[in-house]
Amino acid sequence: MKLAIALGVIAACGGASGGSDASATDPDAGTIVGGSCSAVPADESGDGTYYAADGTGNCSFDASPNDLLVAAMNHPDYGDAVWCGACVNVTGPKGSVTVRIVDQCPECLKGSLDLSPQAFDMIADHAAGRVPITWHEVACGVSGPIGYYFKAGDMQYYQAIQIRNARYPVAKLEVMQAGAYLELVRADYNFFISPSGGLGNGPYAFRVTDQRGHVLEDTGIALGSDVTRSGASQFDACP
Fold it and tell me: In terms of Cα–Cα distance, which of 25, 16, 34, 32 is closest to 205?
């Protein structure tokens, strides 16, 4: 399933990691191209369980000890990491909580979520262990622009890039090459990779599309290793 999601109580959807270097981007180079605010998918339902979550997992985010309202997505819905960084509101027998998707639950059936203990305890009695839940997308409560995280060790001959601090989950990342945009391939560990080797030594022009159809463009993004380069804008919020 493709989605659009958000987190009203999480400080940084998508996680912060590595160094941050906002100065590596021209602050006037970002463009909000547009967006359709496409329809939100219907509510999902399944089982809610819990695991020893720390913010890390298949989505390749850093540990987030100050933000443990997180969850792992069931394997059928996880797909090629389309839910990574998404925020969903989960309702159980005793209440609701908004969580950020950071991992995959291989053994979970479609519609199910494996929550952090902190999140599970907000919707059910801890001792229950497994409860029926429903959930739906919400917009992540982020501030500031999106970030481009370059995987540690990458140089001009190979890049793996992850979008962070996005209001809605990312559907597509493209990079300008020889006057045209080249779509990067998304790995199931939530990095976008060039299908034909390296992208050169930068700086880069990127175009990012979220699952709601919003499009952002940034230029002047410098190459890095284990560093987050700041974009210049954020996806618009849908009504």
Answer: 25
Note the pLDDT of residue 1.
40
Coil vs helix vs strand at 77: helix
CB 118 within 8 A of CB 192: no
| Nearby residues of 144 by Cβ (< 8 Å), 6 or more positions away | 165, 230, 234
Q: Write down the pTM of the prediction.
A: 0.83
How many whole angstroms separate alpha carbon 103 and alpha carbon 111? 15
Q: What are the φ/ψ torsions at residue 56 (nearest 5 degrees)?
A: -90, 180
DSSP 3-state assignment of 128? helix
What is d(CA 97, CA 19) in angstroms, rounded to the nearest whole number? 30
Going along the chain from its start, the domains and CATH numbers come out as 19-36+144-230 (2.60.40.760), 44-138 (2.40.40.10)
